[in-house]
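Residues pack. One example:


***
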Amino acid sequence: PALRFFRHQDGSLARFNGMGATIHDRIATILRHDDTVGAPLLHAPHSGYERLSMGGVTVIADTGLPPPIDVSNAAHAGCLAFELSSGRQHFIVNAGIDTYGAPEFRPLAR
């Protein structure tokens, strides 16, 4: 269910909290083996995310609280961050982070 929740209509996953780009085919393969078929959840109260989807437009938003202060030196504080897509087009996205990129850019992605 979580993969469907964070998935845009083009098959990619939303890029929150350091998440980089995903390979659509791999996500589709995983979901083909999922026994819990059905529509994605509309909200994930324990994680602080909400999903709105209607008429081909999808919004996935971080509506949760900031991380605890004791992990603030490494955690991402994406409070109220959101992504907006329509069909296969992404209009507003988080930059994410390049897994193989230079480590000095990691703090900038936070």
